[in-house]
Amino acid sequence: MTSPVIDREVSRRSFMKWSSIAGGSAALVATAAHLGMPGTMSAAAADGMEGVDGTFWNACLANCQSRCPLRLQVKDGTVVRVLPDNTGSDELGDLQIRACVRGLNQRERIYSPDRIKKPMKRTGKRGEGKWEEISWEEAFDTIASNMKRVKDTYGNEAIWYHYGSGSTGGNITKRGTWPRLLNSYGGYLGYYGDYSTAQITAAFPYQYGGWMASNSLEDAQNSKLQVMFGNNPLETRMSGGGELGVVQKIRREHGVRTIIVDPRYSETAVDVGDEWVPIRPGTDAALVAGLIYVMVEENLQDQDFLDKYCVGFDEKTLPEGAPKNSSYRAYLEGKGEDGIEKTPEWAADITGYPAAKIRRLAREIATAKPCAVTQGWGVQRHANGENNARAIFTLAAAIGQIGIPGGGNGAREGNFSIPVKAFPLFDGEAPPVATQISCFNWIDAIDHGPEMTDVRDGVRGKEKLDVGIKLMVVNASNTLINQHNDVHVTQETLADDTKCEFIVVIDHQWTPSCDWGDIVLPSTTNFEENDLIPGASCSDTGWSIWGAKAIEPLYDTKTGYDMCTEIARRLGIEEEFTQGRTQEEWRTWLFEETKAGFPDFPSEKELEEMGVFRFRNPNGHFIGMKDFREDPEANPLMTPSGKIEIYSAPLAEMAETWVFEGITEGDKLTALPEHIDTWEGALEARTNKDYPLQCIAHHYKGRTHSSYANLAKNLEAHPQMVWINPDDAEERDIRNGDIVDVFSSRGRIRTEARVTPRIAPGVVSIPQGAWYTPDKDGVDVGGNVNTVMKYHPSPLAKGNPGHTSLVQVELYERYTK
Ligand SMILES: Nc1nc2c(c(=O)[nH]1)N[C@H]1C(S)=C(S)[C@@H](COP(=O)(O)OP(=O)(O)OC[C@H]3O[C@@H](n4cnc5c(=O)[nH]c(N)nc54)[C@H](O)[C@@H]3O)O[C@H]1N2
Ligand SMILES: Nc1nc2c(c(=O)[nH]1)N[C@H]1C(S)=C(S)[C@@H](COP(=O)(O)OP(=O)(O)OC[C@H]3O[C@@H](n4cnc5c(=O)[nH]c(N)nc54)[C@H](O)[C@@H]3O)O[C@H]1N2
Ligand code: SF4
Ligand SMILES: [Mo]
């Protein structure tokens, strides 16, 4: 049998063609009768029980950081309608948690032709696309025997549980069952960081002593001004009860002036922005330096705050042993190593934003008080995004707005969440294996694991790895191929099955990552399982949701818990894994544990009835670093000095000791949050004749990463495209709607051009998450941005620079109606 993957070649504007392919699938035909739109029903039927056997609460668990409750109406064992939350109101704190288009399109996902229906085993070479159906018995036996073989031959550190975020919102249905299985079997090589926040996560400890959240977005009602760097809540937290709802309401009811710093005129800029500051990608640290330069020149900085709470803004607060002229002020004044004054003219040249505007912006940010400076995560998902993230913290310090109502500390907004007990990944204090690598450089660990060291590759818990990755479990993840930078490097490395010897992929949709598994297991969706959904937190309200099994597992699918129990039995560790509990008994246990720590939490029965449980932050609005601001002596930060370290001595030391072999520009660590001209950054774009455009990859409305990206209705509403500025388009004879090729030295994609002034000149954006779909010439007609991205871990976090790449764009075919 050949690959069970349907022909995914999605030609442009070909929704009709695509849907007819999908319509040919047996799975869809079988359920087509149930795919009618809710809009065609009477109002009563659409929201009532009329004609259905039951309505079940569950939720959309995709990793969009919202978590919307859904009500699934079921008839004859089939989901016939998906309805949004009907509890709550339109008041802050009680907002109705309305699902977005993706969540509401759940039926198309449950009954998608891409659903994996049987366990599959590859029969050809890895990645070749030849498969046969196997029994669950054979699948379990093969996985258990490979686990045993790899453990006996190479040890537990040769086993890898891959990063993934497909069911982030779940609890037992999250991704915990597989790590629990692997930990019960002696553990696995762990990872730190994630694909979302690797660089900012790595930056936090040096400046703030650990992860910090800024004030809640509700608290912005106390702000005179909010400045959002690369932060797009209206597109990336799209729930009606989520940050989208809060930001809109605060803007409308309190009129807080809002400035958006983003190379793209985002949905947030469209809806709530008063001013758009389009800068070149990867240049936020330069903009910040230019802004603070003006503040210092005009004495607008909050010097008292800098003196009392910070280290290294001035020479006098540098830690002992720091060289002369290593303060941030010296950096601004050109007394540091580079000898360059960070004037607005200097910043304008790097960022592309005019010096006069930088001056005006600096004065406004320094004088509008309180002022909430925040950043999303687009800023840091760059080559050396660590420094850009730290620079924005520094701006918040320079204006002294940290830890006060209406202020902000330059991180992403904080929120309140209910402390729901999580399904335990291991028993005891710590997992059995302590060694970790970054979540992103696993491909190096497959290729040359034993060469990886602490100071070169960021290995933690050991000076070097002893063994490479030999067995991978890829669960609820499409980062094996689709979501990982440079699809081709990954494929070449995986193709050699003497390196990583065994890969099992577990999903409910046959994704491009499944193509590279050895065994692929068909998972249930969360609508076919029971769970306690921890819920989400939005500003100052948290919520939890009842996760009901609305329908029986479709086809020959199984829950993660059942799969792991079967494998555990074969490995002789069933008791350790299950603790004698069924999935439902674990749920009861989760309720008991949660209630023990949080008595206000409802019982199982109560939550089943209410569907959604909301809880308001008892402390009012979340104010990031409030305690530290109030009393820095009593509540010091976890930095060496206990203060905000604008100059970091540990980073200064690491800059001397960490190794960057065979590096290109920009791979360096600096004690200060300096601007760095990185590989394929704004500076290189000026001189690179072959690839002169900076390509970023914003998170898109039509999907959550690659989740939902395969559904015809989502594709129709949100087709894949590349945003390109009219000036750049004209130079290339490209018009709106044309089909263009976007390519780098790594690969080529073909997609539709969206010619728009909503993107800065010299920049293009290809929304990330489209499914990698090579045609016979290897051109990715799905338009996956990771076909053109580079695999190049960032210097400190070893994280993914998912918004850094230089590309060229050329016309492929003129659009004609
Ligand atoms: N609809 C939808 N929602 C999602 C997701 C999704 O795929 N779809 N994914 C979810 C997940 S897991 C995550 S991690 C979050 C991601 O949340 P973010 O990381 O905040 O989202 P991004 O779209 O990557 O980036 C936010 C903005 O930063 C801009 N940007 C890019 N580079 C730069 C830069 O150098 N400087 C500045 N100032 N701005 C820059 C982008 O144009 C974009 O508008 O979103 C979550 N929500
Ligand atoms: N170039 C570039 N690349 C990026 C980014 C970028 O900004 N630029 N963003 C990065 C970010 S922030 C992230 S978080 C990653 C996200 O990348 P991933 O974590 O891979 O997320 P998804 O692409 O949504 O894939 C999740 C998979 O989980 C599956 N799934 C859902 N529910 C279940 C379940 O219950 N059980 C099982 N077994 N499977 C399930 C879905 O079908 C889907 O195939 O992508 C990263 N990639
Ligand atoms: S994708 Fe996010 S906003 Fe949309 S329904 Fe799901 S949880 Fe809600
Ligand atoms: Mo993410």
TrEMBL record:
Tree of life domain: Bacteria
Keywords for this protein: Iron, Iron-sulfur, Metal-binding, Molybdenum, Oxidoreductase, Signal
InterPro entries listed in its UniProt record: Anaer_DMSO_reductase (IPR011888), Asp_de-COase-like_dom_sf (IPR009010), MoPterin_dinucl-bd_dom (IPR006657), Mopterin_OxRdtase (IPR006656), Mopterin_OxRdtase_4Fe-4S_dom (IPR006963), Mopterin_OxRdtase_prok_CS (IPR006655), Prok_Mopterin_Oxidored (IPR050612), TAT_signal (IPR006311)
SMART domains referenced in this protein's UniProt entry, alphabetically: Molybdop_Fe4S4
Cofactors named for this entry: Mo-bis(molybdopterin guanine dinucleotide)
SUPFAM superfamilies recorded: ADC-like (SSF50692), Formate dehydrogenase/DMSO reductase, domains 1-3 (SSF53706)
PROSITE patterns cross-referenced by the UniProt entry: 4FE4S_MOW_BIS_MGD, MOLYBDOPTERIN_PROK_3, TAT
Domain 4Fe-4S Mo/W bis-MGD-type: 53-114
A Pfam cross-reference name: Molybdopterin
Family from the record: Belongs to the prokaryotic molybdopterin-containing oxidoreductase family.
Name this protein carries in UniProt: Molybdopterin-dependent oxidoreductase
Organism: Flaviflexus equikiangi
Phylogenetic classification of the source organism: Bacteria, Bacillati, Actinomycetota, Actinomycetes, Actinomycetales
